[in-house]
Amino acid sequence: MKITFIQVAIGLACIANILRADGGGTGCQKKLTKVCPNWESNEKDCLSCVKENLKKLEPECTQQKAEEKCTNPPTTPPPQPLPPALPPLPPVPPAPGAARPNVILFVVDDQGRANIGYHNPGNVISPNMDKLAASGVKLSRHYVFRWCAPTRSALMTGRLPYHVFQSGNYVSREMIMLPAKLKQVGYATHQVGKWHLGLLYSWMTPVGRGFDTSFGYLAGGEDHFTQFQKNPKTFGCVGVDLYNSTSPAYRRNGTYGTYLYNAEIQRVIREHDVTKPLFMYIALQVMHAPQEVPESFSKMYPSPKYDNDYAIMNGMATAADQVLGNTTSALEMKGLWANTLFIYTSDNGGPAGQLSSGHSGNNWPLRGGKTNNFEGGIRVNAFVAGGFVPKSVGGQTRDGYIHGCDWYPTVCALAGIDAHSDIPAGIPGIDGMDMWGYITGNVSKSPRTEIMISSEDTGAIISGDMKLIIGLQTYGFWQGPEYPNATTDHSKEKEFDCGVTGCLFNITADPSEYTDLAATHPSVLKQMHELFAQRNATAYETPKLAEDPEKCAAYVKANQGFLGPYMDTQSEL
């Protein structure tokens, strides 16, 4: 069918009306924050900055729109009282016939599509990952959020991130996390590595959310060798971020973090009571910034073939691979592997652009990466393996949609507990879908046909073959198999603006998002905007809590330089 210019114009006009009716953003506030960082604090300075930098603010901001924001900055609502603690969840008998496998949820931080051997053979050394993926079922369209914490919130709560938080700093205490569910039916639950789902109060920590033990760091990133958290905005002050279940891990810092977590994984498996099923959430620090790895790993990627940044980044992938191999060996030695479901995923795509921490992730052949909604940022390496996976499906690949939130109901069903029970009024329900029938081949197609990736003004939604991205994306370039290399110029890795109209892609026919269909498919574009607005109407954000630098500093002083949940000293209400 031939589409006329008039039809395109009418379609785009309809989309504009939808956005206006829904209050859809253009990214003006985000651009204003970038160009005029203190615009909210002083109206006169803001107006002056707008006048001087109008060209930089366009096209997201017109002069009128920017000046309106200067004169009417958003007000911060007073903090709402935290809800009271939920009563302890009582033990319940598992459903009759439940398989109750051991479950290992293994998350590698910031691993790009091409930072694993089976997607980039000859350039990445990951023999254990490659072998395990080949023995199990590869999940080629496994989606997550564009950065760390919201993905982890989806894994732990069974909800899409736009129903938990997209920019917050903890998960509502009214949402029951996966370990608490599994404890109800007799699982032993352990967490190792990165948390990033709450740190101000003890109830926000892993043990406070249902793990029997935990060992790792509470924030999102830190020095790999010293465990020092140098960003005061994370906790409210600086210090050593290493926490052992209910207190700082005194005298255990000062070793490369991946080695620390490897040792803890071995300990947990070695001491596990085999009369109970095991749930273990392993969330490695690698490959997150800062880019640091022992030289023994980076040397595996010699110069001049590989750039130093490439060697360090993929050296971290190889370090993660060794931990994976040690984990599976320990499970086999303990006699647990035959009844273990091993779930592997990254939390987001690799950080490739100059505006993304690390700059050295590789998502080839996909577009973009961490911090944006192109496929490279949200479609990640994932597979399942282990003795619990039927041998009949070993070596297969599933091409249907799966989201990180789907593991919650999938695991709950296998453990014999209802994922949808005990949800308080006013809290979004479980978005995840039980994928076990699809993974094992009992169902031919994935039950998931839609994914609301993000409801922000830079958000995205997938429905069927089509994907809509709106707003300003942090970058949108394509990497090669040996990115970064000696010729890489990060200064050329610019933002890409899909604007209010949005970018439209057929990600089945065009998985690398080369062809924007927005101008040639106005009716589809309009339908996608309508669906986005409909889903956006149900968005939920756990209210963000403010840090307290004084209380934080006092806690660090009293705890030998270590950080921890310092707000316990004041009333939670």
Walk me through this protein's architecture.
With about 575 residues, the chain is α/β, with parallel strands linked by helices. Strand 8 (about 245) and strand 9 (about 245-250) form a beta hairpin. Helix 3 (about 45-50) packs antiparallel against helix 5 and helix 10 runs parallel beside helix 12 (about 310-335). Helices cover about 30% and strands about 15% of the residues. The model is unreliable at about 1-15 and about 15-25 (pLDDT under 50). Strands 9-8-5-4-10-1-11-13-2-14 form a ten-stranded mixed β-sheet, sandwiched between helices. It has a four-stranded antiparallel β-sheet with strand order 16-17-18-21, covered by helices on one side.
Topology:
Layout: H1 5-22, H2 28-35, H3 43-52, H4 54-57, H5 63-71, E1 102-108, H6 127-135, E2 137-139, E3 142-143, H7 148-157, H8 178-184, E4 188-194, E5 213-217, E6 228-229, H9 232-235, E7 239-240, E8 243-244, E9 247-248, H10 257-271, E10 278-283, H11 295-298, H12 308-333, E11 340-346, H13 375-378, E12 379-380, E13 382-385, E14 396-398, E15 402-403, H14 407-415, H15 436-439, E16 450-454, E17 460-463, E18 466-469, E19 472-473, E20 496-497, E21 503-506, H16 522-536, H17 549-558
Parallel strand pairs: 1-10, 1-11, 2-14, 3-15, 4-5, 4-10
Antiparallel strand pairs: 2-13, 3-12, 5-8, 6-7, 8-9, 11-13, 16-17, 17-18, 18-21, 19-20
Helix pairs in contact: 1-16, 3-5, 10-12
